[in-house]
């Protein structure tokens, strides 16, 4: 019995099926010699070239001169908090982060990348919070590059990528929380600035890890209702404040009335029936909870 023949394996680029996405770039250390010893070797090579030319050995001298010239192109300097990313004929060969003077393959292309901490102040965005209220929000983001390979090769422009993803992350964060805390125990943008800042750092860290960027700090720099509803929301806040104040005043007044009745009863200053107690409670509550000073009416006659 004949065995079934296995179909030939067709490479992805020939089968018409798109290959899997490429693996994210990973930074690695580049090859680099200390610059001072390399300069000494280059000077020796330059001296040999000059001696060959003076000795009329022009062919060998010209070749040595060309080698000397290309050797000079291999020197480069890395400034503090900067890195030099090296590519050779379109292939990534490494990143030099050490500060100083170095020599490497003169045919490599070197790109400088700043590793310093940067600030990004977003524009004021008009978004809707969790309750659907239009608000204005902005943030200050502190970030730096931690993986030069990802920053250069995995995104088109990592600075623009940070700006766009910061705006997207800020919009998403604003939609997860209400502007103010209308329910006791719930988080809000205005009432929990530290928790909101931590959530924003996590949000941006997830979005920007593909660009080799680390978020050091992110905080809201502007937060306000949009002008079209600012007046109505101000009245709502004032009403909430008035209700909270009135609640506290009433609680205090009830406690004071209770204390007064208890002391009158314990010290037997005056004996009051239930009707007079109710009248006294009413008068004390009016005096204690009134916004204006009360004008008492003095009864010069009998108690009843």
UniProtKB/TrEMBL annotation:
Span list, region Disordered: 1-21
Gene3D superfamilies: Band 7 domain
Residue ranges of every copy of the Band domain listed in the record: 73-237
InterPro entries (UniProt xref): Band_7, Band_7/SPFH_dom_sf
Record field: transmembrane: 31-52, 58-78
Lineage top rank: taxon: Bacteria
Keyword entries, A-Z: Membrane, Transmembrane, Transmembrane helix
Record's keyword annotation contains Membrane: yes
A Pfam family matched in the record: Band_7
Protein's UniProt name: SPFH domain-containing protein
Organism name: Deinococcus oregonensis
């Amino acid at each position: 019995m004949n065995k079934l023949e296995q179909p030939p394996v067709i490479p992805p680029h020939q089968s018409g099926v798109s290959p899997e996405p490429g693996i994210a770039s990973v930074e690695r250390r580049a090859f680099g010699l200390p610059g001072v010893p390399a300069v000494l070797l280059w000077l020796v090579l330059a001296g040999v070239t000059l001696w060959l030319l003076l000795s009329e050995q022009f062919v060998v001298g010209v070749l040595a001169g060309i080698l000397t010239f290309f050797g000079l192109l291999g020197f480069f300097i890395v400034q503090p908090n900067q890195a030099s990313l090296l590519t050779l004929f379109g292939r990534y060969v490494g990143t030099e982060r050490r500060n100083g003077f170095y020599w490497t393959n003169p045919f490599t292309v070197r790109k400088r990348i700043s590793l310093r901490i940067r600030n990004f102040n977003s524009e004021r965005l008009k978004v809707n919070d969790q309750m659907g209220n239009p608000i204005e929000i902005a943030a200050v983001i502190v970030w730096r590059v931690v993986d030069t390979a990802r920053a250069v090769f995995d995104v088109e422009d990592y600075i623009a990528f940070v700006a766009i993803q910061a705006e997207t992350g800020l919009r998403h964060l604003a939609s997860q929380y209400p502007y103010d805390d209308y329910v006791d125990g719930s988080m809000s943008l205005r009432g929990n600035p530290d928790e909101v800042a931590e959530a924003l750092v996590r949000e941006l860290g997830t979005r920007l890890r593909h660009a080799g960027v680390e978020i050091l700090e992110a905080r809201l720099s502007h937060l306000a209702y949009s002008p079209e509803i600012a007046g109505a929301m101000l009245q709502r806040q004032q009403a909430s404040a008035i209700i909270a104040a009135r609640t506290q005043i009433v609680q205090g007044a009830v406690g004071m009335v209770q204390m007064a009745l208890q002391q009158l009863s314990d010290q037997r200053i005056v004996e009051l029936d239930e009707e007079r107690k109710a009248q006294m409670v009413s008068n004390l509550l009016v005096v204690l909870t009134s916004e204006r000073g009360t004008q008492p009416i003095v009864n010069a006659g009998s108690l009843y």
